[in-house]
């Protein structure tokens, strides 16, 4: 188990607060991103009236899709630890007038999930110090469990595999300081390990699961249900 490091967490919060505007554009407009988000949300198999938590919600790129699924009687809760990301997501909620969507500042590694029907985490687990333990904790709090994880990591198949060196450069240059500078391993390898740990935990713990890759093998989507 890795102990969370407050300095690195603070560095990541500052990074995502400072770059919230740029990140928001990327989160909504990067090629193929909407389709990936739609696929992840669909895997949760949400029903009208459900309560769903978007952990590490960032600037709120999943909120509309989740709200569409749970309907006006359902509840969407976004949680993020970066104040700048939370501000931006809250501004979106206020602009749209969504009364059943709330965005809270909180830590994904210490999350009370009582009353939640499902959890979504997109592009988050690669930033967590011990993703397997965190996903374990989420699953302990969810009954029955419905969870979807969407992440990027190096590709193990064609056509993506030959592009792994380029992917590694992008990860090394764009990773927030707290995830970039405390491992002897290259950041892409750290990312691979964290993503694999989180997804493996989900696949081992949930009674019914699905797993697949997209975007040339760079995007990993796993989901678990009852
Ligand atoms: C790459 S962004 C993804 C944002 C969003 N899920 C999306 O798909 O666009 C990662 C987000 O996770 C948040 N984050 C990282 N570690 C966190 C933690 N321990 N608790 C809460 N939020 C965290 C960051 O502040 C950042 O907004």
UniProtKB/TrEMBL annotation:
It comes from the Archaea. GO terms for molecular function: methyltransferase activity. InterPro entries: Methyltranfer_dom (IPR025714), SAM-dependent_MTases_sf (IPR029063). Pfam families: Methyltransf_31 (PF13847). The keyword Secreted does not apply. GO terms for biological process: methylation. Residues 47-131 form the Methyltransferase domain. Keywords: Methyltransferase, Transferase. This is Class I SAM-dependent methyltransferase. It comes from Haloplanus rallus.
